[in-house]
Amino acid sequence: MLGLKEELLKSIWHAFTALDLDRSGKVLSHNLCTVLNVPHDPVALEEHFRDDDEGPVSNQGYMPYLNKFILEKVQGNFDKVEFNRMCWTLCAKKNLSKSPLLISDEDAFKVWVIFNFLSEDKYPLIIVPEEIEYLLKKITEAMGAGWQQEQFDHYKIALNTSREGLSAWELIDLIGSGQFSKGMDRQTVSMAINEVFNELILDVLKQGYMLKKGHKRKNWMERWFVLKPNIISYYVSEDLKDKKGDIILDGNCCVEALPDKDGKKCLFLIKCLDKTFEISASDKKKKQEWIQAIQSTVNLLRAGSPPPHKEARQKRKELRQKLLAEQEELERQMKELQAANENKQKELETVRKQLEAAAARAAEEEKKRLQTQVELQDRFSLELEREKMVRQKMEEQVAQKSSELEQYLQRVRELEEMYKQLQEALEDEKQARQDEETVRKLQARLLEEETAKRAELEKWHLQQQQTIQMTEAEKQELENQRMMKEQALQVAMQQLKQLELERKEALEQYEEVKKKLETAANNTKSWKDKVAHHEGLIRLIEPGSKNPHLITNWGPAAFTEAELEERQRSWKGKKSTSE
Q1: Residue 530: CB partners within 8 Å, gap ≥ 6?
Q2: How far is residue 514's CA from residue 456's CA, in Å, rounded to a whole number?
Q3: What angle do CA 481, 485, 490 make, to 5 degrees?
Q4: Residue 276: enclosing H or E segment and its boundaries?
Q5: Cβ pair 29, 45 in contact under 8 A
Q6: In Å, how far from its chain's centre is CA 422?
Q7: Distance (Å, whole) CA 494 – CA 502
């Protein structure tokens, strides 16, 4: 009840601070009793708001009445959304920005409720940068966009330099400005805010369409299921207007997958103490998501843990409180160190003053010592001055003698130097003459060699010219011979082609003549057989001539050699005519 009272106080605080308590405190109290389902107490209400000097018209005076007559009687059987909407109606008109926003009034109301959920438990209410980042991340994820961490870090730095956090109306302006939702339309932003509102405020852990098997008719109907920390409600559609029933969850419930049957797929079963529910998801992924979500909810009920988002909010608050305590402890330690440092500074100042006094005494003694030393130095200076004058006279005499000796030695050194230079000049002249003679001889020899080489080069040049001329002539002759050989080769190739053609024609004529001769031989043989058969002629074998035997298709010695030569000449003549 303490957590519920804190949540209610935040919304009431907004409405209370926006009203003139003298005129509207009764209206606020009456409306609170109505939406929270608390019995009205007109006597206490009139007594509290009586018009006298003792009437509680301040924040401190209204809180005792609010706690005693309203909040302590709240049982939790009220509509949270309706309660928040009543408080929003009383405070929005006065505080909501007049500049146009990218979100609707309904979305602004949901952001205001989320602010009350995430804000710190101190007044005036603010939301710290860590919770702002958490909310903006949730909205960005719901929109399906990427989170701009660098952009928020710049915004966070600018925010931390001026204040600790934002008020509800500044948060609405931030989200409504579109600074962290660039590129998204109003509908996408609205759907994202609604999704975050359902999760954080309405405790909706999961929702979606699935098929449910009836208990009486055993038929399958599509329903819109809404999973909350201790209940699953199902409706005709997602507008939540026509509720068809609830599945009460507790630590004894369990959920398990079922095999496909009766033409239905992706089935799972929710077992409760009194009833069992068969449900069919749209696909395997949704089936697994629903099973995990329901099982996680049952596990939280068994462990007595709050919903994940409330537990996460509590952990974030505890972490901030821990960091704040550590920071306070660090500040306390810093103050102790600073106090110790100041004490040390005081001690050091005392020591410094003591040292300054000792230094003053030492300076006085040093002054006396220096004065005595100056007197002694003056006395010694007079004696030293007299000795210095005597020494100076002696040094002047020694210097004069030394100067004369130095001049004499200088003249001797100059004469010796001149003698050495003269000897070196003579040696240089002698060497120069020898070098000149050597160079002259070398030049003459080089000139002779150059003349001989020039003559030899001219001879080689002439020989090269002659060789080049001969080579050019030979090259020209070889080129002519090559051209003639190529021409002869072309002529020979043409003749070879011509002979090849003639050979082919001769073979064709030979084949043709051969066929004719075979035909004629067959005819002759047939004719001779007929004659021999009918007439009975017998050819007598006679001795042949002594010449070499000539055999033709008509038999031995059918033609003489002269006749054959005549026939061969006739054949060649016909062949040349046909060509």
Answers
A1: none
A2: 82
A3: 150
A4: strand 276-280
A5: yes
A6: 89
A7: 12
Residue 124: asked if its preceding bond is cis (omega within 30°), the reply is yes
Q: For residue 243, what are the β-bridge partners?
A: 235
Q: How far apart are CA 268 and CA 514, in angstroms?
A: 104
| Backbone dihedral angles phi then psi of residue 93, each to the nearest 5 degrees | -60, -35
What are the backbone angles phi and psi of residue 234, rounded to the nearest 5°?
A: -130, 140
Cβ atoms 147, 137 nearer than 8 A: yes
Length of the chain: 579
Q: How far apart are CA 149 and CA 133, in angstroms?
A: 9
Mean pLDDT by 10 residues, the chain (579 residues): 72 82 66 83 69 44 74 80 90 85 90 90 87 89 86 84 83 87 85 89 90 87 93 91 91 91 89 90 93 92 85 84 87 90 91 91 90 87 88 88 88 87 84 82 84 85 85 84 85 83 82 81 69 51 51 54 76 74
**For residue 116, which of 191, 172, 33, 38 has the smallest C-alpha distance?**
172
Residue with tokens 């054959």: 564
Q: Which amino acid is at 380?
A: F
CATH topology of domain 206-306: PH-domain like (2.30.29)
Q: What gap in Å lies between CA 457 and CA 555, rounded to an integer?
A: 90
What beta strand segments (E) does 72-137 contain? none
Provide the residue ranges of all domains of the chain, joining segments of one domain with +: 1-202, 206-306, 307-389
- The residue type at 343: N
CA dihedral 562, 567, 569, 573 (to 10 degrees): 160
Note whether 293 and 227 are within 8 A (CB). yes
- pTM to 2 decimals? 0.54
Nearest-angstrom CA–CA distance, 573 and 126:
134
For residues 298 and 250, what is the distance between their CA atoms, to the nearest angstrom? 6
Given a contact cutoff of 8 angstroms between Cβ atoms, the answer to whether 186 and 180 are in contact is: no
